[in-house]
Write a structure and sequence with these properties.
With 426 residues, this protein is an alpha/beta fold. It has a domain at 177-237. The chain is built from 17 helices and twelve strands. The strands form three sheets. The chain has a seven-stranded mixed β-sheet, with helices on both faces. Strand 10 (349-354) and strand 11 (360-363) form a beta hairpin. Helix 6 (177-190) crosses helix 7 (198-210) and helix 14 packs across helix 17 (404-415). The longest helix is centred in the first third of the chain and has 14 residues, at 17-30.
Length: 426
């Protein structure tokens, strides 16, 4: 059944799951994404990534994602499965993708890194038949390129063990207004809105980038891709199918798939933009109190609406609603953070650089990992954590406020993948 195009999304080609699967296979084989990073780092402690993942989830006992987990990277592209296998060396990792070319590059990277815990499969998420199999499923930037994202999400939910965790990133609708509009315009100009021709669309896109016919936000947006590799241009400006969501619409779709939010995923993209939290600070105390009393998803929805294009990436951890994992609010996670004792992380790192021969080679890294925070106040917290006292007591001794916004900000910056400086002590 054809899906009607909307003003918000780019869906003229979203005619059926199988058709879009084939379309994505061709697109990402022609434009394998993303390109290889110039350097890769991982912690020398083989359990470091799992411990930090659990702390992202508010699991200070580090047991929500168990030791030696089974991981599925669904829609792994050129790098993600190999990087996951590198960071989780005691895990069994499976990477799936539609693009043979992307999987070929991923296998090459994994071989360079010496990853022996990775299995790659050329398969669609829509056709994969996994049930109650994985402790951790990673699917970032994938389901929104499907004809029926809800059906794709149901496949991911089915693959989770009852105790499993899903890391999901979909496009934030307020981030994609310009991209979806440009993509549709290119297809209309090129005459490819029903029959794709990626070479023609690339030529049209580059012509518009070279001399855009108007001034304004779209001109500024397109100009930033001048001189970029074709892969980058295609991923940003030529996606064949693009759905997007809000906090509210994603929560509704997840609920229909038997899933619910755990907490937002700390990630490097938001850190780089300074958007590490889905929580706002209001200047009026009464507004702040009303805002903080709301359930997490309603509070994040308000943030999504008020910040619009400046809201964080829609990147969330989810769990099965029928599973035994206890649902904790961000406030409860922050309360337990204050009761928890921590010690500084000092694990060292393994570093790999991409050579001129386009192969990764291991290099010695004298830099400590993860090091210390840049801000003096946070450095002092890390140093004080050596004394084996609860975090609440540390903050009290330093006269740091213990309101929800402050505590959650410190939790994110000191104990998660944004800043993994502290490790919880049982």
């Amino acid at each position: 059944m054809a899906i009607t195009d909307t003003i918000d999304d780019n869906l003229s080609l979203a005619t059926a799951r199988e058709t879009v699967d084939q379309l994505n296979s061709v697109f990402y084989s022609q434009f394998p994404y993303p390109w290889r990073p110039r350097a890769l780092d991982s912690a020398a402690d083989p359990d470091f990534a799992r411990i930090v993942l659990n702390q992202n989830l508010g699991s200070w006992s580090h047991d929500m994602v168990p030791p030696n987990p089974k991981i599925w990277v669904a829609g792994c592209g050129t790098n993600q499965a190999a990087i996951t296998a590198l960071n989780f060396p005691t895990a069994s990792v499976r990477g799936s993708d539609l693009s043979p070319e992307s999987l070929k590059l991923c296998a090459s990277t994994a071989a360079d890194l010496g990853c022996t815990n990775l299995e790659l499969r050329n398969e669609s998420i829509n056709q994969a038949d996994y049930t109650d199999q994985f402790d951790y499923v990673i699917c970032t930037g994938v389901i929104h390129h499907n004809a029926e994202p809800e059906a794709t999400l149901q496949q991911l939910a089915k693959a989770l063990k009852p105790t499993g965790v899903l890391e999901l990133m979909v496009y934030n609708r307020y981030h994609r207004i310009l991209t979806s509009a440009f993509q549709k315009a290119v297809r209309l100009i090129a005459g490819t809105e029903t029959t794709p021709n990626f070479e023609k669309e690339l030529s049209t896109t580059k012509a518009l980038m070279d001399k855009f016919p108007a001034t304004g936000l779209m001109q500024q947006f397109v100009a930033q891709f001048k001189g970029s590799p074709d892969v980058a241009i295609a991923d940003a400006l030529m996606q064949p199918v693009e759905n997007s969501y809000t906090v509210e619409t994603l929560a509704d779709m997840a609920a229909r798939c038997g899933l619910e939010y755990i907490t937002p995923t700390p990630n490097a993209l938001d850190r780089g933009l300074g958007n590490i939290s889905w929580n706002m600070r209001f200047l009026q105390p009464e507004l702040q109190q009303s805002y903080e009393k709301l359930p997490d998803s309603r509070r994040w929805q308000i943030t999504n609406l008020l910040l619009c294009e400046n809201s964080p990436f829609l990147w969330m951890y989810l769990k099965r609603k029928d599973g035994p994992i206890e649902k904790k609010s961000e406030q409860e996670i922050c309360d337990s953070f204050l009761r928890t004792r921590f010690k500084p992380n000092a694990v060292g790192r393994r570093s790999y650089i991409l050579t001129k021969e386009n192969k990764y080679t291991k290099v010695n890294s004298p830099l400590p990992y993860p090091g210390m925070p840049a801000k003096p106040e946070m450095r002092k917290i890390v140093e004080t954590a050596k004394n084996d006292v609860p975090m609440g007591q540390i903050l009290e001794s330093m006269r740091i406020g213990r309101d929800f916004f402050t505590v959650n900000d410190l939790r994110l910056r000191l104990t998660t993948s944004i800043g993994p400086f502290l490790r919880a002590v049982a």
